[in-house]
């Protein structure tokens, strides 16, 4: 049977039409294949990338040996941890102005390098009331023994580790004492974590006063790098993907100081008499540990009383 006899012209037209339609659908299928879709997804996907390691870095005027692979990798670890713990680091950036304005002048008065404000941040995360499992507390995470040895009062009614100015003074005394022993601010920072005697034992055994050459326990071996990472990020936030405007930062709190020499049976009533509520009195004076202050020795205390309008975020940020 000939081709002409098998297929009439109308049938041939229908055959070619159907073939053309099949080819069009095949083309559409190919164009919308998974390969094409994946390519588009990859083009728009946001990738997690490594952090920027600075070309050079100093702490308290002392150089960090970034040419050593172990130092570089240890710093990289802490930069990654703090860069990609975004919620925590954004809080640090928001709080820094408030706390640094209280800490910086005291460090300067005591000849402590300004970089030690980042040690306070590493210790407490700007949490004034945080207490470690070992019992260290306050912005500088002072143990009771170290606090009393450096001039702070701690009893049932008063704990001056929660007084930012006084605890900073106590920390400065410790830091200056450690510096007289070691002559290196980086070693001093490490001793704040491991203790003066703990660092001395390792430094003597390993015959080195260079922190970056010492083999230390896990916590202390990471400690200085954490401080360095926080310094790097807070000084260069946009380089690490953070952008917090001045209006978004927590305001510096304004207050007046009054001297208290007697006893107070009811601090809530006392607060109302001063034009504030009990919550604000305790917020500004967390070193007051009870709802009263007997003060049997009639010691003089400075209380912070917030100024009018301080509680308003809009007014406080101006």
What does this entry look like structurally?
This protein is mainly alpha-helical. It folds into 3 domains: 13-44; 58-248, Lysozyme (Orthogonal Bundle), CATH 1.10.530.10; 255-316. The protein has 14 helices and 4 strands. It has helices at residues 3-6, 9-31, 34-44, 69-83, 86-109, 117-124, 144-149, 164-182, 185-194, 196-206, 218-235, 267-273, 278-284, 313-316, and strands at 58-59, 62-63, 255-260, 301-306. A hairpin with a 2-residue loop joins strand 1 and strand 2. Helix 6 (117-124) crosses helix 11, helix 9 (185-194) crosses helix 11 (218-235) and helix 12 packs across helix 13 (278-284). The longest helix has 24 residues, at 86-109.
Count of alpha and pi helical runs: 14
Shape designation: globular
Structure class:
mainly alpha
By DSSP, the count of extended strands is: 4
Indicate how many domains the architecture comprises: 3
Provide the β-strand percentage band. Answer: 5-15%
Mean pLDDT: 88
Order of helices and strands: HHHEEHHHHHHHHEHHEH
The CATH architecture of the largest domain can be given as Orthogonal Bundle
Please give the radius of gyration in angstroms: 32 Å
């Amino acid at each position: 049977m000939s081709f002409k006899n098998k297929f009439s012209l109308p049938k041939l037209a229908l055959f070619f039409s159907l073939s053309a339609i099949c080819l069009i659908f095949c083309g559409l299928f190919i164009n919308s294949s998974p390969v094409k879709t994946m390519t588009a997804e990859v083009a728009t996907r946001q990738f997690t990338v490594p952090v920027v390691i600075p070309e050079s870095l100093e702490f308290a005027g002392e150089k960090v040996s970034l040419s050593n692979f172990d130092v570089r990798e240890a710093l990289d670890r802490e930069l990654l941890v703090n860069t990609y713990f975004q919620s925590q680091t954004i809080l640090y950036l928001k709080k820094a102005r408030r706390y640094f304005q209280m800490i910086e002048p005291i460090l300067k008065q005591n000849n402590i390098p300004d970089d030690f404000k980042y040690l306070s941040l590493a210790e407490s995360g700007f949490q004034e009331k945080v207490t470690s499992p070992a019992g260290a507390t306050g912005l500088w995470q002072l143990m009771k023994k170290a606090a009393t040895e450096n001039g702070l009062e701690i009893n049932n009614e008063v704990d001056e580790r929660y007084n930012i100015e006084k605890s900073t003074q106590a920390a400065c005394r410790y830091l200056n004492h450690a510096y007289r022993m070691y002559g290196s601010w980086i070693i001093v920072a490490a001793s704040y974590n491991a203790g003066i005697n703990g660092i001395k034992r390792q430094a003597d055994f390993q015959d080195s006063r260079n922190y970056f050459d010492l083999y230390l326990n896990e916590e202390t071996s990471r400690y200085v790098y954490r401080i360095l990472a926080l310094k790097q990020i807070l000084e260069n936030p946009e380089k690490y993907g953070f952008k917090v405007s001045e209006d978004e930062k927590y305001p510096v709190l304004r207050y007046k100081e009054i001297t208290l020499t007697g006893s107070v049976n009811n601090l809530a009533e006392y607060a109302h008499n001063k034009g504030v509520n009990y919550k604000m009195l305790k917020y500004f004076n967390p070193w007051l540990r009870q709802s009263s202050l007997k003060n049997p020795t009639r010691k003089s205390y400075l209380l912070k009383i917030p100024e009018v309008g301080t509680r308003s975020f809009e007014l406080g940020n101006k």
